[in-house]
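Sat 14:20. Reprocessing the chain from the morning session after the first attempt stalled halfway. Input below, unchanged.
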Amino acid sequence: MKEFLVVLTTTVPEGTEPAEADRRRAAESVRAGELAGTGHLFRLWRPVGELRSIGVWRADDEADLRENVLGTLPLWPWMTAEITALQPHPNDPGATGPTA
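Finished this time. Tokens:
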């Protein structure tokens, strides 16, 4: 799977019943957990004081990410997404770092 940096901004449509927004947020939490369990959601952050989320997501390609991963989120119809494909950096100290 390929990795993508994704910035998600959710805007609840004007006139939406609070109960509907609450229902979708609760379902969003459950779905995010499922996607993490399948390896599609790798990391997720929320900038301090902001309502957007920044995450590292995994999918076969951007179309798969949009249609079969992000598209399954209950809040997706209310979201905008900025998606950047990522590739490994030769100086990444992560999993390919030096070994003792």
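The beta strands are 2-10, 41-45, 52-59, 79-86.
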